[in-house]
Write a structure and sequence with these properties.
- This protein is mostly helical.
- The chain has one domain.
- The protein contains 5 helices and 2 strands.
- The protein has a two-stranded antiparallel sheet with strand order 1-2.
- Helix 1 packs antiparallel against helix 3 and helix 1 runs antiparallel to helix 5.
- It is elongated.
């Protein structure tokens, strides 16, 4: 069995001090930026998924996915239509990109029938809904 030597203890302690300083620098300076970057990636993937999973008849529901940073949106634009979804995703991506450390990113849709669509009432286009599957998809991609 090896014996404990005090000079090794001080070497390890000094290395641990260096390690702790490095961790503190990382969590203070690097981690917040990395977390923000990851949050933006997740938000964009989730926006893309819910947008593209939203059933399309006129494009109104798909176009009303809104991204906000201060609080959830309550807006509905009944004159906005985006059957393909690309305009909605680009509009949301601009808001996501402007988000800052510590801000929440909200993705909402307030058309009066979005809950019905999310429950799978569009049997041909989204029989299993929208939101839950979108979240599961993003989680699986990053698990």
């Amino acid at each position: 069995m090896p014996t404990f030597r005090s000079e090794n203890y001080f070497a390890v302690a000094a290395d641990m001090d260096s390690f702790n300083r490095a961790i503190n620098i990382t969590t203070r300076d690097i981690a917040p930026a990395a977390i923000l970057k990851f949050k933006k990636v997740i938000a964009l993937e989730l926006l893309t998924s819910v947008t593209m999973r939203t059933p399309v008849k006129t494009g109104r529901a798909r176009s009303n996915w809104n991204v906000t940073r201060s609080r959830p949106s309550r807006a509905v634009n009944v004159n906005r239509f985006d059957k393909g979804g690309s305009k909605t995703i680009l509009r949301g991506a601009r808001h996501i990109e402007r988000s800052k450390e510590g801000e929440n990113i909200y993705i909402t849709n307030n058309v009066h029938y979005i809950t019905d669509l999310d429950r799978g009432t569009s049997r041909q286009q989204a029989p299993m809904g929208i939101g839950r599957l979108a979240v599961e998809e993003v989680i699986l991609r990053h698990a």
